Known about the structure:
The structure is a single chain. The protein has two helices and eight strands; from the N terminus they run ββββαββββα. Helix content is 14%, strand content 46%. The chain has 153 residues and is mainly β.
Amino acid sequence: NNNKIYLSARVGNKGKPIVDCDATIEMFLVENNVKRTLFKQAFSRPLVELSWYINLRLDEADTPVPLQHLKTVLLNPDNCLIRITFSGHDASTGNMVHLFQYYKADQIKRGGSFLDVYHWEGVERYIIDWNNFDKTVEISEEQNSEIDKLLNS
């Protein structure tokens, strides 16, 4: 995305906006029936109307830790997981909203930016297409090679 490489997740809500939102990306290694956290990154946002992108930058030389742990996940597909958690409060009722999803290494997809869920006409949001929620822009062979080079470094 924007010539940068991220591990990204999209969370969303088809109902009312969610306020006071928190999310985490965690990477785990499971050995001898014990789950050990390799990496955890937290994110916060005051409001999520429909969707939120949680992006963990992988190609920054100054912060190689996320990339190193993603490599561990990819090299140990039988023992490693990624978990995305999200929580907040429904803006109308104040009720707590919480979800989490585990991903195995083979569930990680390569792609560009997420496709739009909604479109704007002036200041009016006029189309909400939830079919695009998990879809991304196709990436080129050159971009795939860049990712391969990063993962094999």
